[in-house]
UniProtKB/TrEMBL annotation:
Protein task: Transposase-derived protein that may have nuclease activity. Does not have transposase activity.
Entries under InterPro entries matching the protein: HARBI1-like, HARBI1_animal, HARBI1_dom
Similarity annotation: Belongs to the HARBI1 family.
Major place of residence: cytoplasm
Residue span, DDE Tnp4 domain: 152-301
UniProt superkingdom: Eukaryota
Cofactor: a divalent metal cation
Protein name: Putative nuclease HARBI1
Amino acid sequence: MDINMTDFMDLEDLDMLDTTRRPDRHRHRVNPFELSDEDFRYKYRFSKRFGEKIVGIIREDLVHDPRGCPLSPEIQVVCALRNWARHEIQDDTADLHGVSQPVVSRTCKKVAEILSRKSREFIKMPTTLNEQQETIRKFRSIANFPTVIGAIDCTHIRVKKLNADGGQLYINRKGFSSINVQVVCDADLKIMDIVTRWRGSVHDSRIFRECRLKQRFEAGAFSGILLGDSGYPCTPYLFTPLLNPTTPQEERYNRSHIRTRNTVERCFGLWKQRFRCLLRGMFGDIETAKKTIVACAVLHNMAIDMREDVFSGERDSIEQYSSEPLVQRYIAPSIRGNIRRRQFIETHFQ
């Protein structure tokens, strides 16, 4: 068999061409914290001070991989922050930071895992009497509704469609796959309790019925009450609006209830405005999505504590991405809840 030597030359030429492409463009990395405050905020939608705070909290947990070219804690944090806050294509985040897309994916997963493990430090109900009284005072200042310790509601976070067995259980009543996330917030819009383990087809009332927070209220752990919409049953510790108010007192109760409970809707709006991944959906695996939701709740609370302004660019309509209808399916109150609410109205809304 005759072999043409030019074939070898052509193959060598191709190898040389390949070699010219191999220098790793992903190795050129700069410290993002060397950017100006304005440039950092434009790229990551948060201040440098906020980014540095996150790095300080999780630095020890971001163990360097000794192989190859390890990422610094600073690069890992800003990759996750940009991906969650801007919800851009991971390839774009990778190009910006001199890494590959799989590295960005693994980094976001790692940072979400670490932050979700630390969630109890940042997401917690008021426990001491002084903390509870301060929470009640702030809620009362909104619309003079007394003894409120939290506003509760659920929101759907879109996830990728699952084709495995049970995947249809993630499809909510609006027809897309989601995780139904229960949140309790305070008057400052901070998240005090979060439940992320339920599929989109599960109703809000069931999530509360089976959560640990309900058990704590029934055990008398809190001196105040929760406010919820008509998608929850009225109980002695969770008040809902009246379906058909007939007296001036009942109308005053409903008006005050609606204005006070609206804090949880505002909390959802602010939370999703800060983290576009919550608005537009998460398309990794379900367990990572759940941890990312909790991680974003941790960062949301940190941002409120640090008085971070919401980034003004690239505004989306919050209503456009709202997953909850304005009218919830009505759940009849319990007998004890009805009696307790009636007594409450007679005492406080005369």
